[in-house]
Amino acid sequence: MAGSVWVCTVCGWIYDESEGASDLGIAPGTAFGDIPEGFVCPECQAGKDAFEQMGV
């Protein structure tokens, strides 16, 4: 299952859509856009607006 990869521009934490983030309750295959707006980076607490899609 391929998906986009997103990186936090503050700390570099990576969210891979194909892997999800099970420790955060986000299932594999969950698109970044489908993550609730209240999501914050688990490393630095930056908001979703601090993430950029890699390879774009």
Number of strands: 3
Q: Approximately what portion of the residues adopt beta-strand conformation?
A: 15-25%
Measured between the Cα atoms of the first and last residue, the distance is 19 Å
The coarse silhouette is globular
- Figure out the total of helices: 0
- The CATH architecture: Single Sheet
CATH topology tier name: Rubrerythrin, domain 2
Question: What helical percentage do the residues reach?
Answer: under 10%
Rounded mean pLDDT is 94
Strand order of the largest sheet: 2-1-3
Reading off the top of the CATH hierarchy, the class is best stated as: Mainly Beta
Query: Which structural class do you get from the secondary structure elements?
Result: mainly beta
Oligomer: single chain
Radius of gyration: 10 Å
How many individual domains?
1
H and E string:
EEE
> Which stretches of 5+ consecutive residues score pLDDT under 50?
none
Domain Rubredoxin-like: 3-54
Keywords: Electron transport, Iron, Metal-binding, Transport
Pathway: Hydrocarbon metabolism; alkane degradation
Family: Belongs to the rubredoxin family.
